[in-house]
Amino acid sequence: MPTVLEQRVRRVLATLTALALTAGLSLVGVLAPAQADPAAGTLSWGVKESFRSYIASPIAKGSVTVGGGATNNGTSYGFAQTATTFDGSTGLTTFAGSVNFTGHDGALDTTFENLRVRVDSPTAGVLVADARGKSFDTGGAYELLDVELATLALPAPQVDGDVSTWVSAPAALTAAGAQAFAGFYAAGSALDPVTFSVVTEAPAEPEPEPTTPDPEPTTPEPSPEPTEEPSPEPTTEPTPEPTDPPVATFEPAVSLFAADGTTPLASSSVALGDTIVVKGSGFDPAGNLAPAGARPPISAGNPAGTGVRQVRRHVEALCWCCVEHACRG
């Protein structure tokens, strides 16, 4: 913990430092403002000329250290663009690197890093940074993130393709920025102008849709072997000649029945005047057909052959009507 004497020394030193910083300290040659011509995608800023002069004076006996890829050309510090959302009108651009100022054997220690420029309109922007260091009055450490250090009065940009460049934009310290400078400067104090270039990031090309390669040509499977047995080999044997159909044979027979037509007479005696039924079978229906009127009582077209004559001999004693019945049977 600082002693009372140390605190008094710090207060006196802080007062002298503030006066020297405000006056620009004529003890040291004044550096000319940076006239940087930055390459595409860079930010060039000298912070504040009087502050740099004081750090280098015999009073502070300080030093300046850059890191994270930042550069120092003696009058300004350069930072490279890492990302942007700037669309040609508005957007935020981030620059990599840091710059650290020390003096008075470490009692003064201030670092600015992760600088960003936010373009809000064609004429207005803001310089944003993270700040950390020691309080020159108490010696306590501090860290301020995303501090809006200064407002920027933007000139018309110089546009070359996808690169927009603002040259020497005037910067004015904000109240939050005054805290980052350990209270050495009041809000509204002029800081060194800011020159920065932004490369507009082209929209990413859409990934092409994956294409399915054409399938490899396939060799068709051979058709299965035929399952049918092949036709037999032709034979040399001659085809047999067609044969005549068998000759039909007829065996005529005569049966005698009682008058009911169903009771066989067999050897039963028959009296004169009895009615009998004679049935013939086995006759050739197409043989010996009776011509019209030739063989009464047989009508034309009916069989009138040997079988009928045999029936006549068996029943010649019967009456004519009985013969007629027999023939019809």
Q: What brief labels describe this structure?
A:
alpha+beta, 2 domains, 8-stranded antiparallel barrel, two-stranded antiparallel ribbon, 14 strands, 31% strand, disordered N terminus, disordered C terminus
Low-confidence stretches: 1-13, 15-39, 314-329
The 3D shape can be described as: rod-shaped
Count of helical segments?
A: 5
Number of strands: 14
Radius of gyration over C-alpha positions, nearest whole angstrom:
70 Å
Q: What is the first-to-last residue Cα distance?
A: 161 Å
Overall structural class, as computed from helix and strand content, comes to alpha+beta
> In what range is the share of β-strand residues?
25-35%
Summed over residues and divided by their number, the pLDDT gives a mean of: 77
Widest β-sheet, arrangement of strands: 1-4-5-7-8-9-11-12
Explained architecture:
With about 325 residues, this protein is an alpha+beta fold. It has five helices and 14 strands. The chain has helices spanning about 5-25, 50-55, 175-180, 305-315, 320-329; strands spanning about 40-45, 65, 70, 75-85, 90-95, 100-105, 110-120, 125-135, 140-155, 160, 165-175, 190-200, 255, 275-280. It has an eight-stranded antiparallel barrel with strand order 1-4-5-7-8-9-11-12. It has a two-stranded antiparallel sheet with strand order 13-14. The longest helix is centred in the first third of the chain and has 20 residues, at about 5-25.
